[in-house]
């Protein structure tokens, strides 16, 4: 897979602020790949994602992991008894009872201790290893388009399994590796308290086998849907003056500028209420209004017209 090319597609179509981060859990016996550095200070797993999205390629054996929770969940080490039992969640006042803490721990995806020997992280474009997952830091609008791209050829709705606990290790890595399905995370207490993820950002994790098809679907969506949504083409110009229904005065006036109309037919095709029709004479083809009383003032025709020929009042 050409990771550099894929990274560029994701960055261009979604206008990403941060590089997508490739993450691999090293299997026992696997050799450390070239061009990765072991950080000089231990980092939490969530912090290592931030360091990688800033352009660094990291090799993180257990001694480089600062978070005992994360390294346990990722199957690098055995977790401490205090964490495993749930007692620390009570001390931090994150959960109300030990019973609930234990239930949360039991339902949390993890790998058995010793399953993996290190984590590898790199900006996708620089990855010299095959990632298990690729983690995106996104705004909700960008996450929406990634959802659309991911189901572009299936029409499925996504089922995400997430929690406010142990987001970057359990939800973004283990869950995705175990199920082979993308997952979303809003971050967790530890990840937000100890890393610079912005309050308006969230995470999305894609399994590597879905990278190529998702990128290709994003290219399709970037032809029309993404730029139109970003231009807010359906915003009603008088949205902030919308009054009560009784105040609606008179009929809807749909004006089509005949000098601008090229007769492309887009407004007719897109109108959900059959308000418009094409009229065709020997000399010209143009849109015309035939059933204005059915118009719901959705502004779809206004937004779709490439010539900006339609005005509604
Ligand atoms: S979309 Fe615009 S240019 Fe095309 S037919 Fe309708 S009014 Fe004419
Ligand atoms: S505003 Fe909506 S309902 Fe009215 S003509 Fe345009 S597309 Fe049709």
Give a nutshell description of this structure:
With 313 residues, this protein is α+β, with helices and mostly antiparallel strands. Helices cover 33% and strands 15% of the residues.
Which secondary structure elements does this structure contain, and how are they paired or packed?
Elements lengths: L2 H12 L6 E6 L18 H9 L4 E3 L7 H6 L7 H5 L1 H5 L6 H10 L10 E6 L9 E6 L1 H11 L16 H13 L3 E3 L3 H6 L7 E6 L3 H11 L3 H6 L23 E3 L9 H5 L5 E5 L4 E5 L10 H5 L5 E3 L1
Antiparallel strand pairs: 1-3, 1-4, 2-3, 4-6, 5-6, 7-10, 8-9
Structural class of the helix and strand makeup?
alpha+beta
Uncertain ranges = none
Strand content: 5-15%
- By DSSP, the count of extended strands is 10
Give a quick account of the main beta sheet: strands, pairing sense, barrel closure.
Answer: 6 strands, antiparallel
Number of helices: 13
Lateral arrangement of strands in the main beta sheet? 2-3-1-4-6-5
User: Helix fraction?
Assistant: 25-40%
Average of per-residue pLDDT values: 93
Bound molecules: iron/sulfur cluster
Whole-number tally of structural domains = 2
Q: What is the 3D shape?
A: elongated
Specify Rg, calculated over alpha carbons. 26 Å
Question: Helix-strand pattern, N to C?
Answer: HEHEHHHHEEHHEHEHHEHEEHE
Distance between the termini: 52 Å
């Amino acid at each position: 897979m050409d990771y550099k090319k894929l990274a560029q597609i994701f960055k261009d179509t979604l206008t990403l602020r941060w590089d997508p981060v490739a993450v691999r859990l090293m299997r026992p016996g696997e050799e450390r790949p070239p061009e990765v550095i072991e950080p000089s200070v231990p980092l939490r797993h969530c912090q290592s994602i931030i360091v990688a999205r800033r352009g660094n390629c990291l090799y993180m054996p257990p001694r480089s992991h600062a978070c005992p929770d994360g390294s346990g969940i990722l199957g690098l080490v055995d977790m401490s008894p205090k964490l495993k039992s749930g007692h620390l969640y009570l001390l931090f006042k994150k959960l109300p009872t030990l019973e609930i803490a234990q239930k949360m721990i039991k339902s949390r995806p993890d790998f058995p201790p010793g399953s993996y020997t290190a984590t590898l992280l790199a900006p996708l474009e620089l990855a010299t290893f095959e990632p298990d997952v690729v983690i995106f830091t996104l705004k909700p609008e960008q996450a929406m388009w990634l959802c659309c791209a991911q189901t572009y050829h299936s029409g499925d709705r996504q089922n995400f399994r997430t929690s406010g606990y142990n987001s970057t290790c359990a939800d973004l890595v283990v869950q995705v590796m175990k199920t082979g399905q993308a997952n979303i995370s809003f971050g967790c207490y530890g990840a937000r308290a100890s890393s610079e993820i912005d309050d308006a950002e969230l995470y999305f994790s894609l399994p590597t086998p879905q990278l190529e098809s998702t990128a290709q679907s994003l290219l399709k969506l970037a032809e029309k849907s993404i730029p139109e949504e970003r231009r807010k083409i359906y915003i009603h110009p008088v949205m902030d003056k919308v009054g009560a229904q009784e105040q609606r005065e008179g009929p809807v006036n749909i004006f089509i500028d005949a000098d601008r109309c090229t007769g492309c037919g887009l407004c007719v095709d897109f109108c959900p209420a059959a308000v418009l029709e094409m009229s065709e004479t020997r000399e010209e083809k143009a849109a015309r209004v035939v059933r204005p009383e059915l118009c719901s003032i959705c502004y779809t025709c206004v937004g779709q017209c490439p010539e900006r020929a339609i005005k509604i009042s």
